[in-house]
């Protein structure tokens, strides 16, 4: 039996619940991207927060917090087979308990570790690579990450910029973190309206671009190393790369 | 802010860029009703065209200087554009960059304009504005001006996260040659003071929880590589002494970029010794994370690090009698000494082998670099190197092959 879920983390955990208490799941797929086939029957799962919470607690209690975090990171990844990786990992996890955290090279564990690493790495990267624009009323930042990392950034910036209103906009997924000085929430967001820059904004962007070009040492120039740290696909949202080409 | 800021920023960032320290790590702070926080893992914000990370706004308060250190671009005999920021300008610029998430904080250094005390006082003013007016909880790294009053260093240290004094040269002789107005004791005095106060502060905080932290992210220093004739031996020895004596968090190495002409200096056309700098950093890692001693890395017979091999391979090749080690039995300390095994993979091996034997196939998945490690290990009693584990043979197998060059008739 293939289970189809609505794409939410709760939905995924609910499917895992049914896989244990109803019929064993052969695979779990997102409803939106599932391709029906003749041989495997499929059923749509209604996500249920109560059942999801039971699975959530069971992972925490019987496996470990670390594993819980790892599967959450994998859930946020852009891996197309992520649900099945998580399913297999949890099946092994409920057999082994916390020991699963120590067997890095196991074929069911390794892909989880590798995928989770990619997600947490990108999230950490964007703690630095996000650029806010001052629009007079609020700060606005746009990003297009590979994985759905937006929620991992929220607490950090809500603490850092307490007292400021800001929007962090994931253009790729039409999502945004909206923070009103204190509390933040995640919301659908697809505003394309031109955002007015405050008067001083241009000046600070120019100062930053100037600083950025000036800080590099000519004799040590190493574009390959730079590309290693900051791939091309992130650059068009970065002030210093947009501006320094014009300087 | 006027357009004059743009030119000033250009001049003063240019003067600061040869300082290599870039870390914003070592302290966790929450925002308590102002702006900013700090993460102990440090956050890089961008990478400049030379591949170095930009984490802090690294600028000089002024590039006027009464000193005339040979290697320094800001020495007073150099005819370069000079500028000074006011403390308020620096503080405003920091906050505005910080809000936009361009930077993680401030790295403030300075030329010595009138006297060490005058300069240190102005640096303090910047920190005072940032911490007390803006309630800034981001990262601040401050350069200590050698010769400044200990009381000034103290009150600055209570506001900064990290402080550093650059000793620049590992030996008294080379310092005399290149920076005749400085001596090692003058540089060590504030380092010693900071170390002493950090220790005292730590013990006070055990009793009184609300004692203000003093330089919570520790201190660091920098040495220039390649400006004098010092060997790697003296640099690594000096590094080890600094770690042991002052408990420094980091020693940075800066491949000397020729900016000045002088009788005691390399010619202007010399390219910076980047590979040597790289090898020194590798050696530094061995000291800090792999519990190596300086004597094991370099010695009197070979005072320079091997350019073909990293320092750990060089050490292993000199000590082939210790290898091959059995992965399933070696202690954590022994695992760390195997070339190709790092801290992460060693920890993974230790954890996983509690649950069962580790086979050779597992090792690659755990992040071990088998290309190097295979000559130094056995796995469940088997040796996979393919050639006898003898120093000369392994050395030959590991020597990097020169890239083939397309032949040309002309």
Question: What does this protein look like?
Answer:
The complex is a heterodimer of chains A (247) and B (410). Chain A has 247 residues and is an alpha/beta fold. Chain A is 49% helix and 15% strand. Chain A has 10 helices and 8 strands. Chain A has helices at residues 9-21, 49-63, 65-76, 82-96, 110-129, 150-160, 199-215, 223-229, 232-235, 239-244, and strands at 2-5, 27-30, 42-44, 132-134, 139-143, 165-170, 175-180, 183-188. In chain A, the strands form 2 sheets. In chain A, strands 4-5-6-7-8 form a 5-stranded mixed β-sheet, covered by helices on one side. In chain A, strand 6 and strand 7 form a beta hairpin. Chain A is elongated. The N and C termini of chain A lie far apart (60 Å). The mean pLDDT of chain A is 92. Chain B is of the alpha/beta class. Helix content of chain B is 39%, strand content 10%. Chain B is built from 15 helices and 11 strands. Chain B has helices spanning 4-16, 87-99, 116-133, 150-157, 172-178, 184-207, 232-246, 274-289, 294-297, 311-318, 332-336, 343-353, 360-365, 370-373, 391-398; strands at residues 46-47, 53-54, 56-60, 105-109, 139-143, 162-164, 219-225, 250-255, 325-326, 377-379, 382-383. In chain B, strands 3-4-5-6-7-8 form a 6-stranded parallel β-sheet. Chain B has a 3-stranded mixed β-sheet with strand order 9-10-11, with no helix packed on it. In chain B, strands 1-2 form a two-stranded antiparallel ribbon. The longest helix of chain B is centred in the middle third of the chain and has 24 residues, at 184-207. At the A-B interface, helix 5, strand 4, helix 6, helix 7 and helix 8 of A face helix 1, strand 1, strand 2, helix 2 and helix 12 of B.
């Amino acid at each position: 039996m293939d289970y189809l879920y609505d794409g939410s983390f709760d939905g995924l955990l609910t499917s895992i619940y049914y896989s244990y208490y109803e019929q064993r799941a052969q695979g779990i797929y997102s409803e939106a991207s599932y391709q029906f086939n003749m041989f495997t029957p499929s059923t749509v799962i209604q996500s249920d927060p109560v059942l999801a919470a039971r699975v959530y607690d069971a992972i925490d209690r019987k496996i470990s917090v670390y594993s819980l975090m790892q599967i959450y990171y994998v859930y946020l990844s852009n891996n197309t087979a992520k649900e099945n990786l998580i399913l297999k990992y949890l099946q092994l996890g409920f057999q082994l308990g916390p020991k699963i955290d120590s067997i890095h090279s196991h074929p069911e564990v390794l892909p989880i570790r590798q995928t989770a690493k990619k997600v947490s790495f990108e999230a950490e990267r964007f703690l630095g690579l996000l650029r806010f624009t001052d629009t007079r009323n609020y700060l606005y930042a746009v990003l297009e990450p590979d994985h759905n990392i937006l929620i991992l950034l929220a607490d950090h910036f809500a603490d850092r910029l307490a007292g400021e209103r800001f929007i962090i906009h994931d253009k790729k997924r039409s999502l945004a973190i909206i923070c009103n000085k204190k509390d933040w929430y995640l919301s659908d967001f697809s505003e394309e309206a031109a955002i007015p820059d405050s008067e001083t904004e241009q000046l600070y962007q120019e100062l930053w671009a100037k600083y950025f070009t000036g800080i590099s040492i000519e004799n040590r120039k190493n574009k390959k190393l730079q590309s290693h740290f900051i791939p091309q696909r992130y650059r068009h949202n970065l002030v210093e790369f947009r501006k320094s080409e014009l300087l | 802010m006027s357009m004059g800021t743009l030119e000033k920023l250009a001049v003063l960032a240019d003067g600061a860029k040869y300082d290599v320290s870039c870390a914003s790590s070592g302290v966790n702070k929450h925002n308590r009703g102002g702006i900013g926080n700090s993460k102990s893992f440090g956050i890089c914000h961008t990478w400049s065209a030379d591949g170095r990370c930009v984490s802090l706004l690294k600028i000089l308060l002024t590039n006027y200087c009464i000193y005339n250190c040979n290697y320094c671009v800001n020495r007073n005999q150099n005819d370069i554009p000079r500028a000074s920021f006011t403390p308020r300008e620096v503080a405003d610029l920091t906050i505005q960059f910080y809000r936009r998430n361009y930077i993680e904080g401030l790295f403030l250094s300075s030329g010595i304009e009138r006297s060490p005390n005058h300069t240190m006082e102005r640096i303090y003013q910047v920190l005072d504005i940032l911490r007390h007016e803006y309630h800034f909880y981001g990262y601040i790294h401050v350069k200590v001006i050698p010769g400044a009053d200990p009381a000034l260093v103290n009150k600055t240290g209570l506001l900064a996260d990290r402080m550093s004094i650059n000793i620049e040269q590992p030996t008294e002789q080379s310092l005399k040659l290149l920076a005749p107005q400085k001596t090692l004791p003058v540089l060590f005095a504030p380092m010693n003071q900071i170390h002493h106060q950090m220790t005292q502060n730590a013990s006070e905080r055990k009793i009184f929880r609300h004692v203000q932290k003093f330089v919570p992210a520790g201190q660091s220093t920098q040495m220039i590589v390649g400006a004098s004739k010092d060997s790697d031996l003296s640099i690594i020895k000096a590094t080890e002494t600094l770690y042991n004596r002052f408990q420094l968090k980091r020693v940075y190495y800066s491949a000397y970029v020729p900016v000045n002409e002088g009788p005691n200096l390399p010619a202007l056309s010399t390219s910076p010794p980047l590979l040597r700098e790289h090898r020194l950093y590798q050696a530094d890692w061995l000291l800090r994370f792999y519990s190596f001693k300086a004597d094991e890395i370099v010695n009197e017979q070979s005072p320079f690090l091997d350019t073909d091999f990293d320092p750990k391979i060089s050490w292993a090749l000199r000590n082939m009698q210790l290898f091959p080690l059995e992965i399933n039995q070696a202690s954590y300390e022994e695992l760390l000494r195997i070339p190709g095994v790092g801290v992460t993979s060693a920890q993974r091996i230790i954890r996983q082998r509690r649950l069962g034997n580790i086979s050779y196939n597992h090792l690659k998945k755990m992040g071990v670099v088998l290309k190097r490690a295979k000559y130094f290990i056995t796995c469940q009693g088997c040796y996979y190197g393919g050639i006898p584990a003898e120093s000369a043979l392994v050395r030959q197998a590991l020597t990097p092959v020169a890239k083939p060059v397309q032949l040309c008739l002309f």
